[in-house]
Specification:
Elements: H1 2-20, E1 35-42, E2 46-47, E3 52-62, E4 65-73, E5 79-86, E6 95-97, E7 100-111, E8 115-124, E9 131-132, E10 136-139, E11 155-159, E12 163-164, E13 176-180, E14 183-187, E15 191-193, E16 195-199, E17 208-212, E18 218-220, E19 225-228, E20 232-240, E21 246-254, E22 258-265, E23 271-273, E24 284-289, E25 293-298, E26 304-305, E27 312-320, E28 323-334, E29 338-345, E30 351-352, E31 364-369, E32 374-378, E33 384-386, E34 394-402, E35 405-414, E36 416-420, E37 426-435, E38 441-448, H2 452-462, E39 467-478, E40 488-495, H3 498-506, E41 509-514, E42 520-522, E43 524-525, E44 533-538, E45 543-548, E46 576-578, E47 585-587, H4 588-617
Parallel strand pairs: 1-11, 2-12, 14-21, 23-28, 30-35
Antiparallel strand pairs: 1-3, 3-8, 4-7, 4-10, 5-8, 6-7, 9-12, 13-16, 15-19, 17-20, 18-19, 20-21, 22-24, 24-25, 26-27, 27-28, 29-31, 31-32, 33-34, 34-35, 36-37, 37-40, 38-39, 39-45, 40-44, 41-42, 41-45, 43-44, 46-47
Length: 619
């Protein structure tokens, strides 16, 4: 009666809601084409007496659903409902009978995709019989969005069954373990048996492991059998797999005299390569003691005497307890050979045309051997170098050989030439990775008088107190005497006089290019490194001036000059700051002056802008 009541209420409410919320173009004469699939899925499919299980009811539409009613029945001799149905979309209050729950829903906004519509929770009764719990979901009247009832064949209901099984017995955990005897004495080479007792007796997992605090004194196997190795004391510990409970037995190994030793089995590995470590695995000695009887002792590396660096076949001696077997077994050692080499670091030193030998400084190789080892060696240790031609400028593939194995790397051979003029001026030209010097090149250097225009240009660049110490015309020509203009980036070295060295140490010696109009441009210059030369870079050759500056412009390089101080100074010892555009260094006083002028200019600019705004406002 109650269910019939809800069904009639549902029909009336459904019709009113749907028809009042929409304008229908007409009434269809045929039944609705929509479909609905209801499913009831439990949170678990196997339960025990006392368990709770939540059943989720969902609907999947094909088309639209404007209203639904659903009933979940169950076996009330096995289950009972816990709490209320949960579902935000339930229209009418759910009804409960002694063996079912019933809910309805309707809305002008139809269901168009799969949705969970409610859940119900059951508790398995303590005296519930085993087997199917009897949960079953059944859909009732279902309507689409225009209030047409879906035919029965368009509505399906599916329930995942829940089975009640006997509740398993509670596991019995391990609470402790004991070992007997708790202490024992054993002679060297003799054995004694330890026994573990796990509590309680009905514990589910009684597995244990054994360990020794010092296996050089006493060892123990998986069954608790202890073997004395040498005189001393050791604790044997038993540990339960379940719970990690432990117990210990104190073992005293007593001194005994070895009466005799016999090789029972030789080590598994008897063939080696020179330099390999000996592996005693598999070797066993049968040891007879004066007091402890006869026992098998695993061989250790310190028992075996063999020269692992001696190539060929040799007898290995084995000693234990003062007894020795001079020829216990034979070991064959093959010669250690190189199996391959590889370059792990190419040389860092520059190689120049005309050098007598390839510069291998900084180069490293990895050498691999047939015994599985490897080591690193400097490239200078190689036995043979091929492919290097000191007269060929550019990239060259170099082949190096070590231990009859070869590998290659690429070396970049750069240009280098040095001339000394009649007046003693020494200049060298050196290629870089970006230079274009090839073939036979002639370096021409002429020391010239300083033109007035050049001096004026230098003073304009570096200040009135700057001077030119030397003025050099540096050019390159090919074998036919033609000037070479496209040199790429090259490096020039000028040998300094004592006076120039003193200036270089102070960072007050630079190189400037001076054109035909006397315009001076500072060249990229290396800081003085203490070797007596000043180095600068250029991509064209012409007239260059070595310039003595008033302030520090070219600080000494790290480790060069006077103790390698590369901090810039203004010539009086005060620190200076480098102008990134001109390359010049300015003292702190000059920087402070510049900052004062800059800040003043900013203030004037802001003030001017404010005045213009005021004029504009009151214009």
């Amino acid at each position: 009666m109650q269910k019939k009541f809800f069904q009639k209420i549902t029909s009336i409410a459904l019709t009113c809601c749907l028809l009042s919320g929409m304008v229908l173009p007409g009434f269809a004469s045929a039944a609705s084409a929509s479909k609905a699939a209801f499913t009831a899925v439990p949170s678990k499919t196997e339960v025990h007496p006392g368990d709770e299980v939540k059943v989720a009811v969902s609907v999947a539409p094909e088309g639209t659903i404007g209203a639904w009613e659903a009933t979940v029945s169950y076996d009330n001799t096995k289950l009972e409902v816990v709490g209320d149905l949960e579902g935000a979309g339930i229209t009418a209050n759910p009804a409960y009978t002694e063996n079912s729950v019933f809910a309805t829903w309707s809305d002008t906004k139809p269901i168009t995709e799969t949705r969970e519509i409610f859940t119900v929770t059951f508790r398995v009764k303590a005296d519930a019989g085993l087997g199917d719990a009897g949960i079953n979901m059944q859909a009732g009247y279902i309507y689409d969005e225009i209030a047409e009832e879906l035919p029965a064949e368009n509505v399906t209901s599916q329930t995942t069954p829940v089975t009640i099984t006997e509740k398993p017995a509670e596991p019995v955990p391990v609470t402790g373990v004991s070992v007997s005897p708790e202490s024992a004495e054993v002679f060297m080479g003799a054995t004694t048996q330890l026994t573990a007792a796990v509590a309680p007796e009905n514990a589910d997992i009684k597995d244990v492991t054994w360990s020794s605090s010092d296996e050089s004194i006493a060892t123990v196997d998986a069954s608790g059998l202890v073997t004395g190795i040498k005189a001393g004391n050791a604790d044997i510990t038993v540990t339960t797999k379940d719970g990690g409970k432990t117990a210990k037995a104190a073992i005293t190994v007593k001194e005994d005299t070895v009466k005799d030793i016999v090789l029972k089995t030789a080590p598994t590995k008897l063939s080696y390569i020179e330099g390999e470590a000996f592996d005693p695995a598999g070797g066993v000695l049968t040891v007879t003691m004066e007091q402890g009887g006869t026992n098998d002792i695993p061989m250790t590396a310190d028992m075996v005497k063999v020269d692992m660096n001696k190539v060929g076949e040799q007898d290995a001696a084995v000693s234990y307890g003062g007894k020795t077997l001079d020829a216990a077994f034979k070991v064959t050692i093959a010669k250690k050979e190189v199996t391959g080499i590889e370059v792990i670091q190419t040389p860092t030193g520059a190689t120049y045309k005309g050098d007598a030998a390839l510069n291998l400084e900084g180069g490293k190789i990895k050498v691999n051997y047939n015994n599985g080892t490897s080591d690193e060696k400097p490239m200078s240790d190689v036995a043979e170098v091929k492919g290097y031609d000191k007269n060929v400028v550019g990239a060259q593939e170099i082949t190096i050989t070590y231990g009859l194995k070869s590998t290659t790397f690429v070396a970049n051979v750069l240009y280098k030439d040095t001339v000394t003029t009649e007046d003693g001026t020494e200049v060298s030209v050196m290629g870089t990775a970006d230079s274009k010097l090839t073939g036979d090149v002639v370096l021409n250097v002429v020391k010239k008088d300083v033109p007035a225009a050049a001096l004026a240009g230098v003073k304009k660049l570096y200040g009135d107190k700057s001077e030119i110490t030397r003025y050099l015309d540096i050019t390159l020509t090919d074998a036919d005497g033609n000037a070479i203009h496209d040199t790429g980036k090259i490096k020039i070295a000028v040998k300094l006089t004592d006076a120039e060295i003193a200036l270089a140490k102070e960072g007050r010696l630079v190189v400037a290019y001076v054109d035909e109009n006397g315009v001076a441009t500072q060249m990229e210059t290396e800081g003085y490194n203490g070797d007596g030369y000043l180095y600068f870079f250029t991509d064209h050759l012409s007239s260059y001036a070595l310039v003595q500056t008033e302030q520090v412009v070219n600080p000494p390089a790290e480790g060069g000059g006077t103790g390698g101080n590369n901090a810039a100074t203004d010539g009086s010892g005060n620190s200076a700051i480098k102008n990134p555009v001109t390359g010049l260094y300015f003292s702190n006083d000059e920087v402070n002056g510049f900052m004062f002028l800059m800040i003043g200019g900013i203030i004037l600019a802001i003030s001017g802008a404010k005045v213009m705004q005021i004029k504009k406002k009151y214009r």
